[in-house]
Amino acid sequence: AQTVTQSQPEMSVQEAETVTLSCTYDTSESNYYLFWYKQPPSRQMILVIRQEAYKQQNATENRFSVNFQKAAKSFSLKISDSQLGDTAMYFCAFMKKEDDMRFGAGTRLTVKP
Amino acid sequence: EAQVTQNPRYLITVTGKKLTVTCSQNMNHEYMSWYRQDPGLGLRQIYYSMNVEVTDKGDVPEGYKVSRKEKRNFPLILESPSPNQTSLYFCASSLSGRDGYTFGSGTRLTVV
Question: Terminus of chain B with fewer CB atoms < 10 Å: N or C?
Fold first, then answer.
């Protein structure tokens, strides 16, 4: 079974600085999808960014970007110019099949003023 | 507005009293899933459905039932809730899976 590991239970960053959240996964598949979800205190799950494994180019969405290292099975999330509203729990997710999305344990990020 | 609607948002119940958490999506999505979220464990899949009348077990199906009689609805049923089912539950749906899932707002369930 595929597993997703987020090794940083908690992180903090100063407002306007950059922070990187780590995620590794274990799979023998060559084609799959990776996601980062944000869960603010409202507990709503919000899709931040997605990456298709067969695409070499790293995905970017405004201040959010990923560093996808397929050989290392690593999928880190970089948040630039951190804002107070980025304070949330962040979940990394792996999907091999459309009905099977697996999540890491999450990283709690606090942005300090 | 495209959304996944879960009800109720909060629920406190007693051991053994059957309950249903409803989930409805208005996006004509094929795929629907139920997850439970527990501290330190992330989200774990309970059941999923690929289409009407097609459901299958996820990683933690014990103590839960689902049905998919209509495309838009995917209720989660706890026939005899126990305290270890106290958790935060999410319903999610997707058109193709690969674009990611849209989540409901969650149901905080407490079983005493």
Answer: N
